[in-house]
Amino acid sequence: MAATTGVQYGVGLRHARLYALDANGVPAATAATYYEGLEIAAPKAWEMTIPDARRISHVGSDRLMAQDFLPRIEPSSATLRMARADYSIVAAISGVTAYAVGEAAGVGYGTSKQGFEPNIGLLLYQQSLDVNKLRNYRAYVMPVCRAILNPGSMNENPNEFSVQALPQIVSKHLWGIAYASGVEGFTEAELEEYQAVDIPHVVSFKGDGATTNFLFHTSRQAVSTSKIHVITTMTALGVCTDVTGTATKATTGVTISPAPASGVIVTVFYEYAD
Questions:
Q1: Sign of CA dihedral 193, 226, 228, 224
Q2: Does the predicted TM-score (pTM) go above 0.85?
Q3: Domain boundaries, the chain
Q4: pLDDT per position as a tens digit, 73-125
Q5: 146 neighbors 119 (Cβ within 8 angstroms)
Q6: CA atoms within 13 A on the CB side of 248
Q7: Which CA distances in Å does 188 have to 54, 55, 271?
Q8: 3-state SS string for 242-269
Q9: Handedness of CA 181, 235, 203, 3 (dihedral sign)
Q10: What is the pLDDT of residue 85?
Q11: Is residue 230 within 8 Å of 269, Cβ to Cβ?
Q12: Alpha-carbon distance 215 to 213, whole Å?
């Protein structure tokens, strides 16, 4: 199928997923089996607030002579609204532990961990239509952000929970490749937008010095090998290598030979069928 064009009509919010990040800012796999982050179940809406740029007025002779712009200095923020509580998500976002009291599950809000929330990555997508009105998916990726989850109210309305997300300005993709002026046209960003024919997905694996075959989840196989867009390896020292051209791709996973050394993170961005 032909590559997408970046022209699309999007609606709704189908899926949201968060990734714990390691010290190098890539999804923190802990084994040679796939790490897919955590699905944020029942997302309702993603609303982002981006402050206006600074408008500069050049005044002389009692009138406006010219106007210009400077980049904004206020940070952007976003709110993710969800229909369902999930203590595993609270724990991952807040850096706390979901605990048990007898047979009851519990979690804390407004804790001593405030200000020490972990960095996470976010991937969200909605359905869209391309210029020919064929099904596509419009996605946002935030390589690094901090988030705070607010507990829902109790009233006659269905419960709704919200996450305040603060995207960070970073210099590389979620899978570790640095932005480059000659490729992306920029060297720093806080948010990326994608159009994909099939569902975009990011997984990571942790090398053990012996494993060469890194398999995807059986329910989320790549549509085709051409849908495996990038494969990277990241050493503990943060050295990222794009091995997309040398790895062996299959719809079930990727093979990297020789085996990545113990502790090396393998990250893959690909698309799977709905």
A1: positive
A2: yes
A3: 9-51+70-272
A4: 999 999 999 999 899 999 999 999 999 999 999 999 999 999 999 999 999 99
A5: yes
A6: 10
A7: 19, 22, 25
A8: ECCCCCEEECCEEECCCCCCCCCEEEEE
A9: positive
A10: 87
A11: yes
A12: 6
